[in-house]
Design goal:
With 343 residues, the chain is of the alpha+beta class. The chain is built from eleven helices and nine strands. It folds into two domains: 78 residues, no CATH class; 230 residues, BirA Bifunctional Protein, domain 2 (2-Layer Sandwich), CATH 3.30.930. The strands form two sheets. Strands 1-4-5-9-8-7-6 form a seven-stranded mixed beta sheet, sandwiched between helices. Helix 1 packs parallel to helix 4, helix 2 runs antiparallel to helix 4 and helix 5 crosses helix 10. It binds 3,4-dihydroxyphenylalanine. The site of 3,4-dihydroxyphenylalanine has 11 residues, from strand 8 and strand 9.
Length: 343
């Protein structure tokens, strides 16, 4: 023990007195004292010969000695300007790198991009709007005044502190925001997330996604609406798919319609997906109601327009064979990594 202690003291003196004029000398110092066969390592190995009751005290002395040597080495390196890594730590640039796993796009994003890009090719510009919205943009300006019964069609989440604020129930709020900007004509496509107070199950969720379209100009007619949507369906579902319009009701359009396509699962023969009807409903649409135009300071005698809105989850479920809506929001990587696509 005593011998070891005086040995350490002698080493310390030697180290203290050591001076290096270049990097080579510093490296020699490192090998001699701190290398894998160096003195520090060797002396640390003496721990095993130390009696148990002295181990703690001695361990500290050894650690101090190691630190002392390492500090000296750092100082030497700094003073000689040799800041390169020591050879044993040097990077081997020829080694293969750590792989960075590539993520995949979410299936809702894939479907959203597919839908949006078809309309972009027709000159529709993409805009997004706020998810926390006021009553005016989500309801009132869309011709749903305070006591309008159609408000009950959509169960709304309200912001507690201010009942004038809510989570938008549809992307139609972006229509209003775009019209209010006062720049005409408008040809826009508005994708986004919407919220409704519904029980979460395989078939319904408290949030989901929609894409809204709006076209306002002079002389826009229902024929333009049909032709635009025919183009969309052919691009989206193929040339053989048939389309039908059914009269419907939305407060913000007049006339209003819902559009069905022949079931792309069974080809129109009838299956579980289309409830044996051969048709699948894909969107709501219509000519923008004159009240809505007036609410946004657009003259309904000069301008007309059409609008449409569709969900993203349903076509995504059908395309990718997903049978439970909840999978989309659970962030399970085993589910998500199955979707790869260029868009
Ligand atoms: N906002 C409607 C909904 O969420 C969808 C919709 C229907 C949008 C007709 C429109 C439209 O722009 O013209 O159910």
């Amino acid at each position: 023990m005593e011998q070891l202690l005086s040995q350490i003291e002698a080493y310390k003196k030697e180290i203290e007195g050591f001076a290096a004029s270049d990097g080579k000398a510093v490296e020699e110092f490192r090998i001699k004292w701190l290398g894998t066969k160096g003195i520090v390592k060797e002396i640390m190995g003496e721990m095993k010969n130390v009696p148990a009751d002295k181990k703690k005290e001695f361990g500290q002395i050894l650690n101090e000695f190691k630190l002392f040597t390492e500090n000296k080495y750092e100082n030497l390196r700094e003073s000689t300007g040799n800041r390169q890594l020591a050879p044993s730590n040097q990077l081997d640039l020829s080694l293969p790198g750590d792989p960075i796993p590539l993520g995949t796009r979410h299936p809702i994003t894939l479907m959203r991009n597919r839908i949006v890009s078809i309309f972009q090719r027709l000159g529709f510009a993409v805009t997004e709007g706020p998810e926390i919205e006021d009553d005016w943009h989500n309801f009132t300006a869309l011709n749903l005044h305070e006591h309008h019964p159609a408000r009950d069609m959509q169960d709304t989440f309200y912001v507690q502190q201010n009942p004038d604020w809510l989570l938008r129930t549809h992307t139609s709020n972006v229509q209003i925001r775009e019209m209010e900007k006062g720049k005409l004509p408008i040809r826009g496509i508005y994708p986004g997330r919407v919220y409704r107070n519904e029980t979460v199950s395989a078939r319904s969720h408290c949030f989901f996604h929609q894409v809204e379209g709006l076209y306002i100009d002079e002389n826009v007619s229902f024929a333009d609406l049909k032709q635009t949507l025919y183009f969309f369906v052919k691009e989206m579902y193929g040339k053989d798919v048939k389309v039908r319009f059914r009269p419907s009701y939305f407060p913000f359009t007049e006339p209003s319609a819902e559009m069905d396509v022949t079931c792309f699962i069974c080809g129109g023969v009838g299956c579980n997906i289309c409830k044996k009807t051969g048709w699948v409903e894909i969107l709501g649409c219509g000519m923008v109601h004159p009240n809505v135009l007036s609410n946004c300071h657009i003259d309904p005698n000069k301008y007309t327009g059409f609008a449409f809105g569709m969900g993203i989850e349903r076509p995504a479920m059908l395309k990718y064979g997903v049978n439970d809506l909840r999978l989309f929001s659970e962030n399970d990587v085993r589910f998500l990594k199955q979707f790869t696509s260029a868009i």
